[in-house]
Amino acid sequence: MQEDSATLYRTIVMIVDVYRSEQASRFVGMTENDEDKGSDLVLFLDILSNVLSKDILEGGEDNIATGAQVALASLEMLLSVMNESVLKLPDLAMKFFRLVLYLVEFSREALSVMSADLLVALCQCLREGMTSQYGSEIACTSMEALTEIVSYFMATHHPVPPLLAQQFSDTIPLAFETCLENSCENTIFNEATSCLYSLICFDKVAFDRFVTQMLSTKSNEAASNKLREEFAALLPDEPKLGRRER
Question: Where are the domains of the chain?
Answer without folding.
Answer: 1-113, 116-245
